[in-house]
């Protein structure tokens, strides 16, 4: 799974550090991988909202279909980028259920279903 994420992410210039993180983690080079992840988080935090939303949506969709979905989304990425980006998304687009779905809490899932009754993931 990480190799597939690395291939996709590496094709998007702004996501290259994330792609490198996945590639190195797949090879078992955890320390080096997390250096690239830290660089990615620092850069991604400065992106415009639309770019943040695009990456977050891609990553959650990518991971949701896979058994080891936690691998491409380690805790530093969650705390340092994904959660703040999801919060910003909910604030900017309160009518959208997708960011609430990815938060995954009971309250957010209920709201995601209310906003999009056909949302099978939620």
Shape: globular
Question: What's the helical proportion of residues?
Answer: 55-70%
Return residue spans where pLDDT drops below 50 for at least 5 consecutive residues: none
Number of strands: 0
Please give the largest β-sheet.
none
Helix/sheet category: mainly alpha
- Number of separate domains: 1
For the termini, the CA-CA separation is 23 Å
* Number of helical segments with 4 or more residues: 7
Strand content: under 5%
Using only C-alpha atoms, the radius of gyration works out to 14 Å
Order of helices and strands: HHHHHHH
Mean of pLDDT: 93
What's the helix and strand layout?
Blueprint (H helix, E strand, L loop, with lengths): L1 H9 L5 H11 L3 H15 L4 H16 L10 H18 L5 H6 L2 H10 L7
Helix pairs in contact: 1-2, 2-3, 3-5, 4-5
